[in-house]
Design brief:
116 residues; mainly beta; Thrombin, subunit H; 6 strands; 0% helix
Length: 116
């Protein structure tokens, strides 16, 4: 059996959290993210955005005061089927987002060290 080498460059953190996605096609909408890495995240969506759509992602981990804001691009579409604990067939679909760059939240003041 052939084993496909791992393509990810950074580790993923499996954590479920809310994200606010903003783009011209959707406006502002809340979604559920399932994991995150240094380079991107997986976001559940019943109707995925088209590939290469640019969006702004805003999120904050529970219990953390720091909010994050990033520009991202839809890189992949995913559809998963799995069995739950009772053996029932379940499904989940969504998009893989690649972070392009992190940006300051609109209206936030920049830290003094970033101004020089």
């Amino acid at each position: 059996m052939d084993v496909t080498p791992e393509r990810r460059n950074s580790q993923r953190i499996d954590k479920v959290f809310r994200v606010l996605l903003s783009c011209d096609e959707l406006g502002d909408r809340w979604y559920i993210a399932r994991n995150i890495s240094e380079g991107g995240m997986f976001v559940e969506m019943h109707e995925p955005l088209p590939l290469n759509t640019k969006i702004i992602v805003r999120f904050q981990f529970p219990g953390d005061d720091a909010a994050m804001c990033a520009m991202a691009r839809v890189r992949n579409h995913y559809y998963f089927q799995f069995s739950d604990d009772a053996g029932e067939l379940q499904s989940l679909c969504g998009v893989g987002l690649r972070f392009l760059r992190f940006i300051p939240e609109a209206g936030a003041t920049l830290p003094q060290e970033r101004l020089h």
